[in-house]
């Protein structure tokens, strides 16, 4: 009888140790990390990485002298489970992935702990994407993620139970990607929210002195025929651009060219005057000031550059 009681007590001791836990308060959320990608991602910089640290706060109690925690990366590095979001009603698509390796965490003290002991750095890679088959549409320019990186208590989970638990987490990620809702369970302890904004400003450029009038000297036919560059008159077109990105780079390729509907049919660098009162047999040619022997090619269209000089 004494031996039976001893065995029961021993069994109860090991059972209590195996299922000793730190969870029990439910999920708690850290203050959100605010990220603005508006001037970070563009056609010239399609990928951007930034490092953060989770901001878990509060306290929790562990009933074991050795507790183990694992992290679930909702912004999965796995392309099969990638988190892709379509900002501004699906106009711009961005993939977000936590790319640094985040290992399990062990705490070796029974009793009260600070949530800060579970904080960890995370590196997030953002990438511009073409429209994917599957992705979550964001109605405006700001995505509010309830949780990007979550920590769970896995103390007491048997070795053979862990693969099943991990598979369940993968299933939860898929559910979260589809619905935006995460099915939290009792072992989930802390989550790190993120607010991600993407409101890119498109670079626009214009001629500051559009409508410029260039007055040419009056010349006779003999002067035109006997001079190498008759009537040569330098002038400048001033260009300015707004909403430039970092280091003065446009967010897209910008081409500026000149056009006219009065071009010589056989030479798009020569302007002619088709009016009855205009000079006949004489044309005007634009050249680059720093390369006078290089003519400026114009386009017959004001929307299609074609082969015009840019």
Q: Any key phrases for this structure?
A:
rod-shaped, disordered N terminus, Fimbrial protein, 20 strands, 4 helices, alpha+beta, five-stranded mixed sheet, six-stranded mixed sheet, 32% strand, Adhesion_dom_fimbrial_sf, Adhesion_dom_fimbrial, 2 domains, signal, single chain, 310 residues
Task: Classify the beta-strand content into a percent band.
Answer: 25-35%
Q: Into how many domains do the coordinates divide? A: 2
- Helix/strand order, N-terminal first: HEEEEEEHEEEEEEHEEHEEEEEE
Give the helix level as a range of percent: 10-25%
Task: Report how far the terminal alpha carbons are from each other.
Answer: 98 Å
What is the number of helical segments per DSSP (H or I, 4+ residues)? 4
Question: Low-confidence segments, ≥5 residues, pLDDT <50?
Answer: 1-19
InterPro entries: Adhesion_dom_fimbrial (IPR000259), Adhesion_dom_fimbrial_sf (IPR036937), Adhesion_dom_sf (IPR008966)
Protein name: Fimbrial protein
Organism: Serratia marcescens
Keywords: Signal
